[in-house]
Amino acid sequence: GAFYTGIAELVNEEWGGHVLPGLEPRYNPERFVITEETIGKRITYDRKTNTLLLRFRGLQIKARADVSAIQQGVESKIKIANPPNQKVHAILDYKDAVIADELVDEYWGMVAGIQRDYYLSARRFDVA
């Protein structure tokens, strides 16, 4: 019943695979190396609404180079998609994203700089 399903979902999410028979994980994050290019592929721009969608679901930020690559990827995508000095609205999906403890301050400092320089507004978005 419901108890088995609840425990199974907890086990599945904790170990990242379907451990219990008959249940597969709802979401299995893809693993990839964070580079300016891979980040650029996770960002789309809608010119009609002047909105940037950043799909950072499952992102695992584990090194300073990851923080730098994310900043470069976001900034280059904004500069390509948008006229100079025009800010954009941003919608970000951070579900299941992981930031190493020693990088939290550095990462959110970088995000604050991008928000200040490039965003009109920023909202988090989550799709189950």
Spell out the key features of this protein:
6 strands; single chain; globular; two-stranded parallel ribbon; alpha/beta
- List SSEs in N-to-C order: HHEEEHEEHE
State the end-to-end CA separation: 22 Å
Rg on CA atoms, Å: 17 Å
Low-confidence stretches: none
Structure, explained:
- It is globular, with a radius of gyration of 17 Å.
- The strands form two sheets. A four-stranded mixed sheet has the order 1-2-4-6. It has a two-stranded parallel sheet with strand order 3-5.
- Strand 1 and strand 2 form a beta hairpin.
- Helix 3 runs parallel beside helix 4.
- The chain is an alpha/beta fold and 128 residues long.
- The longest helix has 18 residues.
